[in-house]
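Lab meeting tomorrow. Please check the following:
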Amino acid sequence: MATTPRFGLLPSDDNTGRTQTWDYQAPAYASTQAIITQAGNTIVNMALTGACAITIAVGSSTTQPYAGDKIQFIFIPNGSSQTVTFSTGFAVTASTIVCTGNKYASVDFTFNGTAWQETARSITV
């Protein structure tokens, strides 16, 4: 778990955002998903056809993710309600989110140096 930020702290380091990295993942449905981030900002777009449990990598003291990295999950159920469980690597307000049929759900996280801390969640009305 890298507790250092992705951008440099020295006056000669870039902290303008020009070196910011983005990633987009759209994994095929599986009842268990293991997410590994490789960028400062990651979007994971998941179509759900059943319940799903998600784990996420927290790296090591010298490897990604870095403190302040962000990830956004977008869940699209198949017309019936599906439950997503946040497992290893997450610090959440509730360990599950129910994606109601014909609605969408999203959950945002920021890496705090130890775990992916939930910052927002929503379900469309």
